[in-house]
Amino acid sequence: MNDATFLGMPAFPAAAAGALRDSQLRGNLARATGTIRSRRAAAVSEQDDWEHLREAGRAVKERTLRHLDRYLLQLEEKVTAAGGTVHWARDAEEARRIVVGLVQDTGEREVVKVKSMVTQEIGLNDALADAGIDAYETDLAELIVQLGQDHPSHILVPAIHRNRAEIREIFLRSMGAYGTAAPADLNDDPRRLAEAARRHLREKFLRAKVAVSGVNFLVAETGTAVVVESEGNGRMCLTLPETLISVAGIEKVIPTWQDLEVFLQLLPRSSTGERMNPYTSTWTGTRADDGPRAFHLVLVDAGRTEALSDPVGRQVLNCIRCSACLNVCPVYERVGGHAYGSVYPGPIGAVLSPQLRGTASEVDRALPYASSLCGACYEVCPVKIDIPEVLVHLRARVVEDGRGRLVPKPERLAMAAARWVISRPARLTAAQRAGAVAARLVARRGRVGRLPGPLSRWTDTRDAPVPPAETFSAWWKRTRR
Amino acid sequence: MTIRRKEPEMNARTEVLDRIRRALADVPASERPQDVPVPRRYSHGGAPPTGSAAAVELLAERLAEYGASVHLVSTQDAASRLGRLVAGLGPGPVVVPRGFPPEWRSTLDPDRVLTDVPALPVAELDRAGAVVTTVAAAIATTGTLVLDGGPGQGRRALTLVPDVHVCVVRARQVMASVPEALAALRPARPLTFVSGPSATSDIELDRVEGVHGPRTLAAVVVT
């Protein structure tokens, strides 16, 4: 896998244990996710038809995915007719090669970039660097991550793990090396920090000849691309350069212009908790009198058709990258985004990454377990992805993959033993009595902590209360005779 | 563009489409897109009615909430109010796109007005103090102004690079909802939806106004 930024990261249980010990990280996350949760709740509560919008959003995505080939061909035809060029990439390597080649064709040595999950996913910046091309991230949070030589940890706000004081430090330390330095008297007022980013990036926007963007939506019917943003860095990249290269997963297409009315209502309220984000840009091909002279659209598969082939898992391709599921997730709030070992963290990452990358690696096999299955993610999902359903489905797949091993996993032995015990009432009663006695022997202060040997695989990640001295069935027999 | 690179791309297209068709083996060959129902029971707008006093009031309230300044003016007063507003913006040239209504433009100081004919270089836009435009539509519920590059609005760079954007909106352009506005807009044109001044939520997920786009947004709504 080309997930270069996360190469060598430990699987979720080990990474999460480390993250949990970082009290600064936990404080930053609790504060930020708490703020955005209440803003989202307020924005959603004033939209009376919210559930109808969610259902329409889900249905539009289902229609699209079940006829994806048709909509992609329609999109290609419309974009081409409007003066754009469409490229297809089977995998990340091919997508990188296409984009690098397009930049080289312009003769330019630098590009400005507007935040794009798919270019993170395919590791585009490293490929550009290898080709001697400087790529400047222009989204504020991406800039913080890039200047801090850090990894993104949230879909919407990749620098969510950083607080204002840390951001000030990064700006003071690193901005000067890449262009306009931060003012020496910079403090940690968010307005001053935003102002420093404005000054730093201004010269880059004004001289840029090539921009690389992602897209939020592609309208098949009209060939229109849509970018939803806040800061205006997107508008700068989409408007000022001569060449625009937009990279999109094949699932970004929607059938009609009317369908956009659903998503332009769902996305901002779910994402930043705003009625509408400050800026949304739409463009169709190229125009002689406005914007880039050349427009390239790179459509990327990179595992999406693999996810599409699973009728249960397919729904993850509904995702519009709002990040509401991250903000409500009790697991994400405590461990942060890095522990997931993927550019897509949180609940959606736990179901998306193992489908895009497969479950061959330890990181990807651990991801379906990075959840308590509480279901909060499904409640807030604007396109109704049943994340708990897919998590359980993927856990089954991971277990299935383990079948046929010469030495069965301890978990499989334990499950076989459990089946033998619970299939006869007498065996169950005896086991419960024995268990209660044993547990009371090893417990400390009413909890069962670390157990020895293979049992530690279970107890390392959870405590259990001590079972009562009398089981329910024993109590029933004694009192209801 | 070389043949060497074009060739594998053609194969990629065929292969991605093949993979999609194989992945969708469970979808009956006879199924058409419209066979997958899309229930549109959500609101399609219409209330308050387009151009009504209630719609204008809602737009003004929502724009103000997101940090735009809003000026409700009568048709008779529009020109003089706009002139005073722009005069009070501080120094620097004011960009006025082609097609901006002459009765409004006449109140602007001619020494400060910059026209985009021929197209202004981006460095000159960067030195401008403000830009004054009309809009294509406005959405009351979300506090959104939409530009489509039509007369009085200009190309997209004009409303992006200067630090102050003054928009003149006519009451009849104010619609209640997103669906109404999208139905009225033409997707073939480059559209920009503006909801308040440039902002970010990237520092501790709280909203801060003023990043790369215009940091001041003023709406003059002519009723």
UniProtKB/TrEMBL annotation, chain A:
In what residue span(s) does the LUD domain sit?
A: 74-287
The record places domain 4Fe-4S ferredoxin-type at: 316-385
Query: Which residue range or ranges hold the Lactate utilization protein B C-terminal domain?
Result: 402-479
Pfam families named in the record: Fer4_8, LUD_dom, LutB_C
Q: Which SUPFAM superfamilies match?
A: 4Fe-4S ferredoxins (SSF54862), NagB/RpiA/CoA transferase-like (SSF100950)
Q: Which superkingdom?
A: Bacteria
Supply the Gene3D superfamilies for this chain: Alpha-helical ferredoxin (1.10.1060.10), NagB/RpiA/CoA transferase-like (3.40.50.10420)
* InterPro entries for this protein: 4Fe4S_Fe-S-bd (IPR017896), FTHF_cligase-like_sf (IPR024185), Helical_ferredxn (IPR009051), LUD_dom (IPR003741), LutB/LldF (IPR004452), LutB_C (IPR024569), NagB/RpiA_transferase-like (IPR037171)
Report keywords, A-Z.
4Fe-4S, Electron transport, Iron, Iron-sulfur, Metal-binding, Repeat, Transport
Protein name (record): Iron-sulfur cluster-binding protein
